[in-house]
Amino acid sequence: MDLPVLGLLLGIRHLALHGASRDQLRAARRLLISSSLMTLALNVVDPLFAGQLGKAAFDAVGPPAADRVG
Fold first, then answer.
1. What are the residue ranges spanned by the domains of the chain?
2. Of 42, 16, 45, 47, which Cα lies nearest the Cα of 29?
3. Contact assessment for residue 34 and residue 1, using Cβ atoms and an 8 Å cutoff
4. pTM for the complete prediction?
5. What's the per-residue H, E or C state across 16-68?
6. What is residue 1's three-state secondary structure?
7. C-alpha–C-alpha distance, residues 57 and 70, integer Å
8. Are the C-beta atoms of 25 and 15 separated by less than 8 Å?
9. Is the CB of residue 35 less than 8 Å from the CB of residue 8?
10. Cβ(65)–Cβ(59) below 8 Å
11. Among positive and negative, which fits the CA dihedral 35, 36, 42, 45?
């Protein structure tokens, strides 16, 4: 999910610089927010179910741990 978030950030920036209307940007921003929330949920849910509250709190703030990527 991190690549869609990055793509949306770059896409919104590109659209804003090239004169997109507020309505066009609103849809992209909503998709960005939902993708960001989904990424956050995926990073936090696994440690919560495993009972690792500290790891869940860390993943809620920082990027996922390197050992879990891939």
1. 2-61
2. 16
3. no
4. 0.66
5. HHCCCCHHHHHHHHHHHHHHHHHHHHHHHHHHHHCCCHHHHHHHHHCCCCHHH
6. coil
7. 21
8. yes
9. yes
10. yes
11. negative
Could you tell me the two tokens for 33?
Answer: 């927010």
User: Which two structure tokens, joined as six digits, stand for 65?
Assistant: 């741990």
In angstroms, the CA 35 to CA 48 distance is: 20
Asked if residue 67 has pLDDT above 60, the reply is no
Tell me the C-alpha distance between 52 and 44, whole Å.
Answer: 10
- Please give the Cα distance from 52 to 50 (Å, whole number): 6
Is 48 a residue whose pLDDT tops 80? yes
Average per-residue pLDDT for the chain: 80
Q: How far apart are CA 12 and CA 51, in angstroms?
A: 37
Give me the pLDDT at residue 1, please.
53
Q: Is the pLDDT of residue 9 over 70?
A: yes
